[in-house]
Write a structure and sequence with these properties.
Layout lengths: L4 E6 L4 H10 L3 E6 L3 H10 L3 E2 L13 E5 L6 H6 L4 E6 L7 E2 L2 H7 L4 E7 L10 E8 L6 H24 L15 E2 L17 H10 L13 E4 L2 E4 L2 E5 L10 E4 L3 E5 L4 E5 L26 H14 L3 H9 L18 E7 L6 H15 L6 E5 L1 H9 L8 E4 L10 H15 L8 H4 L11 E4 L9 E6 L2 E7 L5 H18 L9 H10 L5 H5 L24 E2 L4 E2 L9
Parallel strand pairs: 1-2, 1-4, 2-3, 4-5, 6-9, 17-19, 19-20
Antiparallel strand pairs: 5-7, 7-8, 10-11, 12-15, 13-14, 14-15, 16-21, 17-18, 20-21, 22-23
């Protein structure tokens, strides 16, 4: 007897193996619901329709079965109502002890010696349905997350043959779970310290941590194992037990060569290798520390703070992963290359009245991209929450997030529409941005440099050549004097002043951004010499304006009316 017609649903590549098994047993896969590219490619090659959801199934005979994998976001009620005979779901952990996601990581961190997979009937809540079939196996002493995931998939396929036997018989019966013993691990759950090694712990605990976060070069949804050396975050590729410790304090470097650091722990020593920076760039171990150096460990408060921030950022990591996958920094022709440290100068202007922070940042993004004629380019954005997170945890949180307008069509959008378009980015930034190791954990992402142009709710973004900040009613044009000459700065300052004035009126948010930009460029303007006279420090040879500039007189510089009421205004055309 055949298993009949089956619909497959899920966000795991393991789904393709189940499809092959169904077809090999004489069954038919009538549809696939998945966003995973490999699953969609498999379905296309097999001539199976790919649908966005179960609700998109065409009218007609109901499928006999629905089989799901990795469906934490799928309502089990829908799965139960659709098929003629029933539905079954795969879970890569032993239930009820390991419900949720990333169960292999949590099992390794807990020092478990056995793991397993579970087939269960869907329920209105995930991983709560009756258990149809379990298959357990041993965890090896040197198990990593990658090897344990592979074992789960092998056990899942092996047990699926037994499950198909029962499905062919026409019905599935399950055993209720003991919900009192249930532990659920959320998507956002993270280990204490977000993967940073605490050398006061024992050697075995640290080895478990490194192995639990070793995904074998595949996507790592959790965290990287890491240490901190001289204030810099260093990622760990592998760890092994090492000889020695003696009376050395935990964290003491016992030996170092180009490949390995041997460090004392609370009991024994560990050899750390495969060291990289958060951009996956290899680091020479003996260039980081010498024998006798002491590597710091987190105190409980610091460890909890790191985990708290990682948990807060976790829901938005897929948003930033998507943005970074297509991000191309804008290329401003007015910026010159400089190998010198930034020398910041600032020019302050009153912000237009009546605009929300989001609308103002959208307008500033449009102005700066239009200024370099690169509407498809991207900017660095540092909102208040990103700044706070990066300053509190330097090296662990990227100090900016990518922001872009999507191309020339942005100029046709009203300011209100543009702000609405950017709201998903602003909302994700309110969680604090993304972890600095996102590149190391996602092999499909390329390493990136800080864009030349930035927007900030504070000071200048380090690594940019020009940052526009908006804070407490003042828009500040920060520029690195080593990357922009005085002439370029003065032209930009004049253009920005005219644009801000164009924004300062009734109905601004309902007007196309391109029209506002055109109005600003058509307005009367100051000469470059007059702009240079706004402060003596900008006269060639006089040196840059200091970072700690005098307080700005917030009365407006009304360029179109030739009114110069700024505190440093010295000359008009």
């Amino acid at each position: 007897m055949s298993v009949g017609n089956v619909v497959l649903i899920g966000e795991d590549r393991f789904l393709t193996g189940l499809g092959d098994a169904v077809i090999a047993r004489g069954g038919t896969v009538t549809a696939v619901v998945s966003r995973v590219l490999r699953v969609r490619d498999w379905a296309q090659a097999a001539g199976v329709p790919v649908l966005p959801s179960l609700d998109a199934l065409p009218d007609g005979p109901r499928p006999d079965w629905v089989i799901g994998v990795g469906m934490q976001r799928t309502d089990g009620t829908t799965m139960l109502a659709l098929p003629r005979l029933g539905a079954v779901s795969y879970h890569d952990g032993p239930l009820p002890h390991y419900a949720g996601v990333n169960t292999q990581v949590w099992a390794l961190l807990a020092g478990e010696t056995r793991h397993g997979v579970t087939w269960l009937l869907p329920d209105t809540d995930q991983n709560l349905g009756d258990v149809v079939l379990r298959q357990d196996f041993e965890i090896a002493a040197d198990e990593t997350a990658a090897s344990l995931i592979a074992k789960c998939q092998a056990a899942g396929l092996e047990s699926f043959d037994t499950l198909l036997d029962r499905m062919e018989a026409g019905a599935l019966e399950g055993e209720p779970q003991d919900r009192a013993r249930r532990r659920y691990f959320r998507h956002a759950a993270r280990p204490l310290g977000d993967g940073r090694l605490d050398f006061t712990q024992g050697r075995d605990e640290l080895l478990r941590l490194v192995r639990a976060l070793d995904f074998g070069g595949a996507r790592n949804p959790m965290a990287s194992a890491k240490i901190e050396v001289a204030g810099k975050v260093v990622l760990i590729g592998a760890a092994a037990a090492a000889e020695g410790q003696g009376s050395e304090a935990p964290g003491t470097v016992l030996s170092a060569d180009p490949e390995t650091l041997v460090v004392a722990t609370g009991s024994g020593a560990v050899a750390l290798s495969g060291l990289t920076d958060p951009m996956r760039r290899p680091l020479a171990a003996d260039g980081l520390a010498r024998p006798g150096d002491r590597l710091s460990s987190l105190d409980p408060t610091q460890a909890a703070r790191l985990r708290h921030q990682a948990v807060a950022m976790a829901p938005s990591q897929w948003h930033w992963r998507s943005r970074l996958s297509t991000f191309r920094p804008a290329v401003p022709g007015f910026v010159r290359q400089s190998g010198e440290a930034a020398a910041w100068a600032d020019h302050r202007l009153p912000a237009p009245q009546g605009l929300s922070d989001e609308a103002l940042f959208a307008a500033l993004a449009a102005w700066v991209l239009a200024s370099c004629d690169d509407w498809s380019g991207g900017l660095a954005f540092a909102g208040r929450d990103v700044i706070a997170a990066a300053e509190t945890m330097p090296g662990y949180v990227n100090p900016w997030v990518p922001l872009g307008l999507g191309g020339d069509a942005a100029g046709k959008r009203t300011l209100a529409e543009l702000a609405e378009d950017l709201e998903p980015d602003f909302a994700a930034a309110r969680a604090g941005g993304f972890a600095a190791d996102i590149i190391a954990r996602h092999p499909g992402l390329a390493p990136f440099e800080t864009p030349a142009l930035g927007l900030s709710a504070g000071g200048p973004i380090q690594g940019t050549a020009l940052t526009l900040s908006a804070l407490r009613g003042v828009v500040t044009l920060w520029h690195d004097t080593n990357a922009l000459d005085v002439g370029a700065h003065c032209r930009l300052a004049g253009s920005l002043g005219r644009f801000l004035e164009a924004l300062d009126g009734e109905g601004t948010t309902d007007r196309p951004v391109g029209a506002l930009l055109a109005e600003a460029e058509a307005a009367p303007r100051l000469s470059v010499a007059a702009w240079a006279g706004l402060w003596a420090e900008d006269i060639p040879g006089a040196g840059p304006r200091p970072f700690a500039a005098p307080a700005f007189d917030r009365s407006a510089i009304m360029l179109r009316r030739r009114e110069m009421r700024a505190g440093h205004a010295q000359a008009a055309e």
